[in-house]
């Protein structure tokens, strides 16, 4: 059975590739691909975190509404 | 984005595009008070979209160019009878009230964002002018409340099947109006007069407003 493919190719502009190559010199990253994978995982995790609704109690909501009433934007 | 989410997104965009082509869309300008919603209403009016207003709330020291409000909006969710009249026009709906817009229309929303500290500072000034106590909730607490409030509202809009939003930073608009105007025009399928919109941006007003 053929081994399942675990990686694919993504194109990035050459100047960006050069920039990343220079940046990872002397760090623990052994290739541009490793660095790009790391950065993308971080970005996605951060986006997923941003998309989670935060708890907003009724009391907190009322404070915002009271502010809007005081400004004349809500009856 | 998961496949199912992608499909939902594509269907949502297709329905909104179809509605747009059939003049079935209600354009909304939304945001927190003092985030530039009145300015955006004026810009869109200049750009060629008729505003739905009643001019009941008159211009004052806090909004010298007018509020562009439509009082019946404040009666949401009880009063939705004005919505057919709003088709093809732009109406200002406060952030709090977009949650109450009924599902039987399509909405394209320009949502104004602005540096939270500037919003608070400007609201404070306005509350003083109105004889209200701006310190009723401490500033640091209000900053956090508004931050969370906006974040949750953006998630609500994103997940709403009938809403499509374009987030415009008031600060970016003041810095580089052309870029924001281009983005807004794209959101309106290129139907706006960008030059007239640019002329509606008043930097003097920005400097004086907080």
Description:
- The complex is a heterodimer of chains A (about 80) and B (about 210).
- In chain A, about 55% of the residues lie in helices and about 0% in strands.
- Chain A is mostly helical and about 80 residues long.
- The model of chain A has no long low-confidence stretch (mean pLDDT about 90).
- Chain B starts with a helix and ends with a helix.
- By secondary structure, chain B is of the alpha/beta class.
- Chain B is globular and about 45 Å long.
- Chain B has a single domain, classed as Rossmann fold (3-Layer(aba) Sandwich).
- Chain B has a four-stranded parallel sheet with strand order 2-1-3-4, with helices on both faces.
- The mean pLDDT of chain B is about 85.
- The chains are: A mainly alpha (about 80), B alpha/beta (about 210).
Which terms would index this structure?
A: 75 residues; mainly alpha; elongated; B: 210 residues; alpha/beta; Rossmann fold; 4-stranded parallel beta sheet; 10 helices
Compile the SSE list and pairings:
The complex is a heterodimer of chains A (75) and B (210).
Chain A: H1 14-23, H2 32-50, H3 58-70
Chain B: H1 3-21, E1 25-31, H2 37-47, H3 83-86, E2 90-92, H4 95-98, E3 106-113, H5 116-129, H6 139-159, E4 163-169, H7 170-175, H8 177-187, H9 194-199, H10 203-208
Parallel strand pairs in B: 1-2, 1-3, 3-4
Helix and strand element order of chain B: HEHHEHEHHEHHHH
Average pLDDT of chain B: 87
What's the multimeric state? Answer: heterodimer
Named CATH topology of chain B: Rossmann fold
In DSSP terms (H or I, runs of 4 or more residues), the helix count of chain A works out at 3
Which residues of chain A form runs of ≥5 with pLDDT under 50?
A: none
Helical coverage of chain A, percent range: 55-70%
For CATH, the homologous superfamily of chain B is named as P-loop containing nucleotide triphosphate hydrolases
Report the span from N to C terminus of chain A. Answer: 69 Å
Number of strands of chain A: 0
Strand order of the largest sheet of chain B: 2-1-3-4
Q: Tell me the β content of chain B.
A: 5-15%
Largest sheet of chain A: none
């Amino acid at each position: 059975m053929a081994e399942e493919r675990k990686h694919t190719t993504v194109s990035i502009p050459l100047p960006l590739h050069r920039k990343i190559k220079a940046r990872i010199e002397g760090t623990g990253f052994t290739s541009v691909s490793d660095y790009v994978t790391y950065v993308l995982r971080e970005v996605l995790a951060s986006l997923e975190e941003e998309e989670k609704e935060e708890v907003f109690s009724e009391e907190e909501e009322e404070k915002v509404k009271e502010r809007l009433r005081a400004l004349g934007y809500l009856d | 984005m998961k496949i199912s989410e992608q499909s939902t997104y594509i269907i949502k965009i297709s329905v909104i595009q179809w509605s747009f082509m059939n003049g079935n869309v209600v354009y909304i300008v939304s945001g927190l008070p003092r985030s530039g919603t009145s300015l955006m209403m004026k810009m869109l009016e200049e750009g060629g979209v008729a505003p739905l207003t009643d001019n009941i709330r008159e211009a004052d020291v806090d909004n010298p160019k007018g509020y562009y409000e439509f009082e019946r909006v404040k009666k949401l969710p009880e009063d939705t009878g004005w919505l057919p009249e709003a088709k093809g026009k732009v109406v200002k709906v406060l952030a709090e009230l977009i949650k109450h817009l009924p599902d039987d229309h399509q909405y394209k929303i320009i949502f104004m964002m602005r540096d939270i500290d500037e919003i608070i500072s400007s609201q404070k000034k306005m509350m003083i002018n109105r004889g209200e106590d701006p310190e009723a909730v401490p500033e640091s607490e209000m900053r956090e409340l508004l931050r969370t409030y906006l974040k949750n509202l953006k998630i609500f809009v994103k997940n709403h099947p009938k809403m499509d939003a374009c987030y415009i930073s008031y600060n970016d608009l003041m810095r580089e109006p052309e870029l924001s105007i281009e983005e807004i025009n794209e959101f309106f399928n290129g139907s706006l007069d960008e030059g007239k919109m640019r002329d509606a941006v008043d930097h003097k007003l920005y400097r004086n407003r907080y």
